Task: structure prediction
Amino acid sequence: MENGDSIYNSSTENAQNQSPPPVHDDDKTTYIKFLLSNAEAGSVIGKGGSTINDFQSQSGARIQLSRNFEFFPGTSDRIVMVSGNIDDVLKAIDLVLTKVLEEFYVDDGGDSEHRSRVRLVVPNICCGGIIGKGGMIIKSLIEDSRAAIKISPPENMYPGLRDRLVTLVGAIGEQMRAIELILLKLSEDHNYIQSINAPFPYPAAGFNGMNYGLNGVGGKFQNSRPYNKEEAASSVTIGVADEHIGLVVGRGGRSLTEISQVHKLVSGARIKISDRGDFMSGTSNRKVTISGSQRAISVAEDMITRKVASAVPAMS
Result:
């Protein structure tokens, strides 16, 4: 992926559509936060912290994660913060995302250009810098990276929450290019650098809310969310666009069976899809209810979301 001053670019076939690579300030300390499911976070940490220590050694960046079942409000995902100079941060993110992609979503010999999503956590006060007047900056980021980029609306933020989610959908090269461009923009904002505090300043969110995901995956409502025991039973209902529900079910129910079987191995999740015409309030999204342990719910939800993401075309 190396290419002169810019380490992370999207695939070579898109190189002609990209602007010249930006020059990185090697001495500037910066950071970025993003979300991982509980299972993904465990994989990145590794046995006795071996994997995360290896990633920190390889990249030179510092990688911190929220504790088990300390989630970003309105999600069942843990928060990761990577800090260091820009190139080190990008290297660490690439190591983390590649590990997650290969372990959870790409079979041996599978498609290395598998489209998936990454959700960045960005201070609300800094989002204008990546949107631009009339959306001009975000349009240029989409054109350059070839990733789909969506920012959660400020009116849906929880009371007291100062961060928004920036969702990137694409192949890993496209995601890394988008992250690089976004990080460079954010690092120019003194408000962003001043926000390099504890990576997880969020209160425990045991209340209902929206999960700002990719196109086609809508609101999520938490029916019961105990935080003290890993295997405590609860359920989550997410919305999936009616036209995408077939991706979750699969031919003859194959995808649904595959997801359920994976989660039974984890801790026994159950998945129920609402009947046709039974939508989440105010939407055309079908209800998909996942029941089981926190760990099973997190893995199931992420698999469903990624199946939908695979059908969302890149924005240009």
